[in-house]
């Protein structure tokens, strides 16, 4: 039988005091951020967070009594106001719509919190009356640690934390991007390039993996790991366009333009299309362009954008269903739910120029 992972064991592992470990895991001050992160990482690696009832919960929650009015219960939707993660987003907003509809169907309320600092989050969070949490998009480990400390059941959408265990919901990014890339190969394309910062989000990285896998399976050359188009800055506000324009100018001068640009999402693809038009490059006659997500603006692009439809509302509904199941079955194995996504064929793709 495995020995229990205690705070003392974590302290011994790191060569720090038990007091430092306790402070770090409780979310209290007095420990610098670097040490706190080391403690969280060590605790995760040693299996501390996965132990049943192992985590000290400093905040007491009042469980709803049997037969109580569920209308007085709410689910916390945590969507830190970072990058473009807002309720008005054509992507994230649709996910929140799905969450709201699913909660309304079972008579539950929703409280949206956009705080991204852990210390402020602690002050505004009142666990009583909250059944659980649905996290939307990128969320810091420190925030998730506070949720875990409280003992609030949680499900994350489009994000997973390597240190804090939870149920997650994703679109099937890898398989969908592989299918899209195979489609481009099927109509004759052999010169590809992926556009998007693969460090920006888990979804972007998974889409890159799907793209790369398709090339490898067809014995085609993949871009090098130091490719500047894989680490583009300014993805959230579109300021990457200047770097992309310079890159395109270099490729055009060297006569190494790709015949297809596979973009990490629709917002990126729409900006790529704008730059190509400004540079006198025809879409799709000269270069085909694809997106991902199928936001509403994708079909209004010039030309309308071939993309992958991510069922955003369905992801929100699936997260609520998983959360309610988790509340009823707290000891069940954690799950990663993948929602199928389909290719939407529009006018931004054609066979390569002969």
Number of domains: 3
Q: Radius of gyration over alpha carbons? A: 23 Å
Give the mean pLDDT: 84
- Assign a percent range to the helix content: 25-40%
Helix and strand content put the structural class at alpha/beta
Strand order within the widest beta sheet: 2-1-3-4-5-10
Largest sheet: 6 strands, parallel
Q: Provide the CATH architecture of the largest domain.
A: 3-Layer(aba) Sandwich
Keywords: DNA-binding, Repressor, Transcription, Transcription regulation
Domain HTH lacI-type: 5-61
Organism: Paenibacillus graminis
GO molecular function: DNA-binding transcription factor activity; transcription cis-regulatory region binding
Would you give an account of this structure?
This is LacI family transcriptional regulator. InterPro entries: HTH_LacI, LacI/GalR-like_sensor, Lambda_DNA-bd_dom_sf, Peripla_BP_I. GO terms for molecular function: DNA-binding transcription factor activity; transcription cis-regulatory region binding. Keywords: DNA-binding, Repressor, Transcription, Transcription regulation. 38% of the residues lie in helices and 13% in strands. With 354 residues, the chain is of the alpha/beta class. The chain has three domains: 40 residues, no CATH class; 128 residues, Response regulator (Rossmann fold, 3-Layer(aba) Sandwich); 139 residues, Rossmann fold (3-Layer(aba) Sandwich). A six-stranded parallel β-sheet has the order 2-1-3-4-5-10, covered by helices on one side. A three-stranded parallel β-sheet has the order 6-7-8. Strands 9-11 form a two-stranded antiparallel sheet.
């Amino acid at each position: 039988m495995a020995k229990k992972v205690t705070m003392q064991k974590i302290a011994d592992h790191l060569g720090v005091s038990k007091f430092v470990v306790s402070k770090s895991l409780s979310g209290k001050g007095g420990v610098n951020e670097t040490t706190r992160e080391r403690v969280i990482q060590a605790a995760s690696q040693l299996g501390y967070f996965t132990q049943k009832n192992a985590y000290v919960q400093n905040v007491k929650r009042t469980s709803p009594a049997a037969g109580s009015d569920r209308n007085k219960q709410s689910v916390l939707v945590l969507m830190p106001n970072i990058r473009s993660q807002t309720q008005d987003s054509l992507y994230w907003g649709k996910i929140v719509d799905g969450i709201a509809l699913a909660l309304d169907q079972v008579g539950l309320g929703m409280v949206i919190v956009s705080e991204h600092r852990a210390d402020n989050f602690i002050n505004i969070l009142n666990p009583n009356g909250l059944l659980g949490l649905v996290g939307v998009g990128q969320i810091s480990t420190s925030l998730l640690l506070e949720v875990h400390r409280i003992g609030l059941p949680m499900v994350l959408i489009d994000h997973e934390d390597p240190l804090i265990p939870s149920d997650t919901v994703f679109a099937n990014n890898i398989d969908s991007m592989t299918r899209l890339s195979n489609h481009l190969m099927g109509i004759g394309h052999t010169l590809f390039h992926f556009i998007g910062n693969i460090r920006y989000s888990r979804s972007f990285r998974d889409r890159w993996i799907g793209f790369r896998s398709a090339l490898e399976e067809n014995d085609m050359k993949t871009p090098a790991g130091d490719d500047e188009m894989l680490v583009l800055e300014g993805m959230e506000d579109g300021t990457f366009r200047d770097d992309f324009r310079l890159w395109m100018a270099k490729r055009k001068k060297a006569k190494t333009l790709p015949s297809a640009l596979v973009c990490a999402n629709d917002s990126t693809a729409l900006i790529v299309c704008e730059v190509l038009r400004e540079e006198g490059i025809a879409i799709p006659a000269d270069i085909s362009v694809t997106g991902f997500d199928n936001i509403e603006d994708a079909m209004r692009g010039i030309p309308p954008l071939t993309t992958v439809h991510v069922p955003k509302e369905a992801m929100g509904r699936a997260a609520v269903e998983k959360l309610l199941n988790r509340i009823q079955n707290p000891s069940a194995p954690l799950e990663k739910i993948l929602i199928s996504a389909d290719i939407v064929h529009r006018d931004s793709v054609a066979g390569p120029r002969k």
